[in-house]
Specification:
homodimer; alpha/beta; Aspartate Aminotransferase, domain 1; Aspartate Aminotransferase, domain 2; 2 domains; transaminase activity (chains A, B)
């Protein structure tokens, strides 16, 4: 039997999905599992998107252009303009989810051995796609004590080598919910300019900013227009993660030229998802506001509730729909597995993502979990009660 | 401006899609272009698949499991059984098109520098995905004179080095339409066994076999069950290339373990495409027979017509819906571009894929094109007339 690739072996398991088999077993035992592990909003997909699918009048579900349907790109450009992001249709390449945008960005910009600097904790799949591309993630660690603010410029500069090709940020941040300030974004801009780096900027949560502070896109930064590769997705803002439509946006023609070749190799992004996405761009302002208000309330509710559980601490996330919380436990991986395998409270348990998977530095995040607030308040309320009971019962508790 | 990746620069442009800008310009001039370049069937998608989309009753278009919806996998297993392919749901991983199955197969089995042997001409995107994975394609050249039969075992063995990790075949073949015989498949099996290689077997055209000869799947070969990685797609058999649903099928647990990690990184295959695909598996036998008969006729019609044009030669393809034909021209890349830029016959022209893109050996296929017979007979008839006229008018003609 031939041996498999070292690259494949080195790929991380998803911290968000690796516990799914245990969750399935818990469900098979009749236990109700609250999914706080995954960014799958429970909100209804906008009716206009569902209607576009239900009313589809095509008779052949055919390939679309490799870079996406033009009319979708036109709508995306108008959408970005509404955020003062000055791009044209030609700067936009439609991808199979934001995931593929990350993958193609790395493949197109980075060679094996190239390094990118990523503030951690970070979305685990950046590391996965870096490994796929043979690139190396150099982490700059942000800490829960400082609310996951951007580490100092000096910490970035310490990591810069001739191999450094880019910085990756996620803003608003998954998993921490942190929203970068203008001052922090300017620091990133200066670094990018000084060392002529790519700035990979994942901004899929831009609709989810809860403070008065403005959302600063990488495209709002002057003088690095050619360095920016923006990652986007319709998944979160229209509660339609399953359609698998995202976008890679860059003014850098050389990057686009490479990306298009990766696009051609996989032929086209999903047609039905593009149809749903184009329609979703007509979602009413009421839907968007209602969704926004719902997350504002859930956030307050979750963070208040978490911080009332003895020994638990969560900073207040300013965006996205996640928080990274510290728990009074020995090991979040063990705890999260135990919740599914050995615990129930009146027939319920909770599933969370151990934060260790969001750090590449060994040992970090050991007592932290990522919690997604994608359930309604009643479920969140009960999930918090279940979590509190679990923390009392867990053999590895530290208080 | 940071430089882009060498890998991205090395990626080939799709020979099937690279002429699209010229075709768009021709269309803008009011010229009707017959698309013989791309495997996009014109046949209607089965009504059951369209109905499943039109009647969708979900309110949230959510992530599916990373390896695909279980009920779809169950149907796929039953489908494979009908071809005497003995696999279970657990051996099947749903992918975003057959393209992703190729990509994940290479990423999971091959490391940078590893080699795979591929009979050429071959589907161009294998090379693209090999480059993405840092792997090296070693071509074994089959020739139009021999009807693109499998080259001798000796030619394979000459290429085997300690770096050789696998053989890739496409059966029935894209672009040649060749169908491997039992004897040829046994030779491949013996090589795979002798050198303990992976056998990557792309069998997406299995429904399209036009001779009495049986379709031999890689899974029909005894003693290499753990070596086989089968690539599949619903795109061609249900005329729904846009849904982007394929499958990677292997009994090799270690390979699956790696593949699943790549699946998790991209979260899930498209939900809507999976719903359409599951429904499509209930397509009536009548539809499948009608489609089959249609291709049988088109094939006869196209090949007869091609061989009647002076100086043109096409072998008779036994499967898929392509042929590689030799034309009396200096350079197929120039000719195919000229057809779109400089030629029209009564307002019509044809678009074909230059065969050079299906060879990795420089200079091969220079007077060959791939022609897809995915148009109805009336269009094919007229396209052949237009092609004949073009060959008379082309300045680089050789007769």
């Amino acid at each position: 039997m031939p041996h498999t690739s070292q690259r494949g072996q080195a790929m991380p398991e998803s911290p968000i999905r690796k516990l799914v088999p245990l969750a399935d077993k818990a469900k098979a035992r009749g236990i109700k599992v609250y999914h706080l592990n995954i960014g799958q909003p429970d909100l209804k997909t906008p009716q206009v998107a569902l209607d576009a699918i239900r009313n589809i009048d095509r008779t052949v579900l055919e390939y679309s252009p490799s870079d996406g349907i033009r009319s979708l790109k036109t709508k995306l450009a108008a959408y970005y303009h509404s955020f003062n992001i000055d791009v044209t249709e030609d700067d936009i390449i439609v991808t199979t989810g934001g995931s593929e945008a990350v993958n193609f960005a790395f493949m197109s910009c980075l060679d094996p051995g190239d390094e990118i600097i990523v503030p951690e904790p970070a979305y685990a799949n950046y590391t996965a796609f870096a490994i796929a591309a043979g690139a190396i993630v150099k982490p700059v660690v942000s800490s829960i004590e400082e609310g996951f603010a951007l580490p100092s410029v000096e910490k970035f500069e310490e990591l810069i080598t001739p191999k450094t090709k880019g910085i990756l940020i996620c803003n608003p941040n998954n998993p921490t919910g942190y929203l970068y300030t203008r001052s922090e974004m300017n620091k990133i801009r200066d670094l990018v300019k000084k060392y002529d780096l790519y700035l990979f900027s994942d901004e899929v949560y831009r609709e989810f900013c809860y403070t008065g502070a403005p959302y600063i896109s990488a495209f709002h930064l002057d003088g690095i227009e050619e360095n920016v590769v923006l990652i986007d997705s319709v998944s979160k803002r229209y509660s339609m993660t399953g359609v698998r439509i995202g976008a890679l946006v860059t003014k850098n023609k050389d990057v686009r030229k490479n990306v298009i070749k990766f696009c051609q190799a996989r032929l086209s992004p999903p047609l039905l998802g593009q149809i749903a996405s184009e329609a979703a761009m007509n979602t009413s302002a009421e839907y968007m506001l209602e969704m926004y208000n719902e997350y504002v309330e859930r956030r307050k509710f979750l963070i208040d509730g978490l911080n009332r559980i003895p020994g638990v601490y969560s900073p207040i996330p300013m965006g996205a729909f996640y928080t990274v919380a510290r728990l009074p436990i020995d090991d979040a991986d063990k705890f999260c597995a135990w919740l599914l395998s050995d615990f129930e409270y009146e027939g319920y348990t909770v599933m969370m993502a151990p934060a260790s998977g969001f750090y590449t530095v060994d040992g970090l995040g050991k007592d932290e979990v990522r919690i997604a607030y994608v359930l309604d308040k009643e479920d969140l309320k009960h999930a918090l009660i279940v979590l509190g009971k679990a923390l009392q019962a867990y053999p590895g508790r530290t208080i």
